[in-house]
């Protein structure tokens, strides 16, 4: 199964997958609106605004697995992020990103791009995965890697 075939749910609860992003560079991020890294929403939004026309898709996957920092659900969560952080890039339904209940998307991402010392688990909110236009996971970034810090690598993939 390719990354494009993994079943997902939108923030409205509709069934979907990543097929609409085939041929695009994807930046996949596990988000949490109450996290100390939530200011990164603004940088992610800026990447979305600056590079969507060139083929970048910023995709947010809310998770409540780290200190219960995502108490919101569905459309309320998307609305909160739009009002408070200016987010217009897609936010999907809340999922688990680690452990036995990890969503298949995150099992795929962490297997393809293990973290520090080869660990597969997600350390915290705002871990980022960069996926090329062919659906290959090319890089994993820690929560402390800001969107601005990874912009050059995104530009390189967009120009390949």
From TrEMBL:
Entries under Pfam families matching the protein: GSHPx (PF00255)
Keyword Plastid set for record: no
Stored PROSITE patterns: GLUTATHIONE_PEROXID_1, GLUTATHIONE_PEROXID_2, GLUTATHIONE_PEROXID_3
GO molecular function: peroxidase activity
Highest taxon, organism lineage: Bacteria
SUPFAM superfamilies documented for this protein: Thioredoxin-like
Gene3D superfamilies: Glutaredoxin
Entry keyword set: Oxidoreductase, Peroxidase
Record family assignment: Belongs to the glutathione peroxidase family.
Full protein name: Glutathione peroxidase
Native species: Cohnella suwonensis
């Amino acid at each position: 199964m390719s990354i494009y075939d993994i079943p997902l749910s939108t923030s409205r609860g509709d069934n979907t997958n990543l097929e609409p992003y085939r041929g695009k560079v994807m930046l996949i991020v596990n988000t949490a609106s109450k996290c100390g890294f939530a200011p990164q929403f603004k940088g992610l939004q800026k990447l979305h605004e600056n590079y969507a026309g060139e083929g970048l898709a910023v995709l947010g996957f809310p998770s409540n697995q780290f200190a219960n920092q995502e108490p919101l659900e569905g459309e309320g969560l998307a609305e909160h992020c739009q009002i408070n952080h200016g987010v217009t890039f897609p936010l999907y339904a809340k999922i688990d990103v680690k452990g036995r209940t990890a969503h298949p998307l995150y099992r795929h991402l962490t297997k393809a791009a293990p973290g520090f010392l080869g660990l597969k688990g997600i350390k915290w909110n705002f871990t980022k995965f960069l996926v090329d236009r062919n659906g290959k996971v090319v890089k994993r970034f820690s929560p402390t890697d800001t969107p601005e810090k990874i912009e050059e690598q995104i530009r390189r993939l967009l120009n390949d």
